[in-house]
Specification:
55 residues, mainly alpha, 73% helix, 0% strand
Length: 55
């Protein structure tokens, strides 16, 4: 059985928390480009993970 790392889930929780706090005005925004295009980055990360599993 393959053990799974907790790094990626914790990273995604941290990123999500940062974006939530940024939307609430409690954290500074990361920039106009990143605030607009972050869903594309998540899709790309998902594709990379999927392709890695198919190999």
């Amino acid at each position: 059985m393959r053990s799974r790392s907790l790094f990626l889930p914790l990273l995604l929780i941290g990123i999500g928390a940062y974006f939530l706090l940024s939307r609430l005005g409690w954290m500074p925004p990361l920039g106009r480009w990143l605030n607009h295009w972050w869903p594309v980055a998540l899709i790309g990360l998902g594709l990379v993970m999927l392709l890695g599993r198919l190999r």
